[in-house]
Design a protein that fits this description.
The chain is α+β, with helices and mostly antiparallel strands. The protein has a single domain, classed as 3-Layer(aba) Sandwich (NADH Oxidase), CATH 3.40.109.10. The chain is built from eight helices and four strands; from the N terminus they run ααβαααβαβαβα. It is globular and about 50 Å long. It binds 3-iodo-tyrosine. The site of 3-iodo-tyrosine has 9 residues, from helix 3.
Length: 226
């Protein structure tokens, strides 16, 4: 057993403004994040993508196993292969797999099986969830860990002025094949990253955010609702 060693908490982030101001300022950045499906092909530097992925890797994870891999794709030929395979799955999905209810729920978002953005966005970041360590060792809460890391990734891209879409063609096994990843890594989400196109449109439905009083409950500690 490796014993715990503790070090002082240094380099702690301390905002230059009050917590009220700092939290409001961060919200003002994040509230403008939109899922975008109309990308520009304008380039984004590798340095930017590295910083975005670095930020994702600051996420907490079960027993600090960091059960994630971020495969960053720029190559047009690989992007074309990913688009082709994704669209094949999506044709199945929209054609039959989804079912009437799911299609009704998706209708206001205006999505369909055409995934042109997979070739237009300058980068595709494919997030993989490791269900085992590279040495065959255990990982803990991989879905939660990778979900949090993906949230950090989206926030970091947005903070850099970039747009993203969390794309989950289902099933996503083809990504392991196209990208040559080992069996213990499972594709978790596919995130195109780039600038929105000049004529970018977003679905009005997605602007809706549930009001705070619907989603936030201040518990009174007496077992009765506020
Ligand atoms: N994977 C499909 C369908 C889809 C499903 C959900 I749930 C969405 O929020 C959006 C789309 C697609 O990407 O079109």
């Amino acid at each position: 057993m490796q014993p715990a060693e503790f070090v002082p908490l240094t380099d702690r982030y301390v905002p230059t403004t009050s917590p009220e101001e700092a939290s409001a300022a961060f919200h003002d950045v994040m509230r403008r994040r939109r899922t975008v499906r109309m990308f520009s092909d304008a380039p984004v530097s590798r340095e930017t993508i590295e910083n975005v992925v670095r930020t994702a890797t600051t996420a907490p994870s079960g027993a600090n196993k960091q059960p994630w891999r971020f495969v960053c794709v720029q190559d047009p030929e690989i992007k074309r292969k990913i688009r082709e395979a994704a669209e094949e799955e999506e044709r199945e999905f929209y054609g039959s797999r989804a079912g009437q209810r799911w299609l009704e729920d998706l209708a206001p978002l205006g999505t369909d099986e055409n995934k042109e953005f997979l070739e237009i966005a300058p980068w595709l970041i494919v997030v993989f969830k490791c269900v085992k360590g590279d040495d065959g060792g255990a990982v803990y809460y991989p879905a939660e860990s990778v979900g949090i890391a993906t949230g950090f990734l989206l926030a970091a891209a947005h903070h850099a002025g970039l747009a993203t879409v969390t794309h989950t063609p289902s099933p996503m096994n083809f990504l392991s094949e196209v990208l040559g990843r080992p069996a213990h890594e499972r594709a978790f989400v596919l995130v195109p990253v780039g600038y929105p196109s000049d004529d970018c449109m977003v679905p009005a439905e997605a602007l809706h955010r549930r009001p705070l009083d619907e989603v936030m409950i201040i518990d009174r500690g007496n077992g009765s609702p506020a």
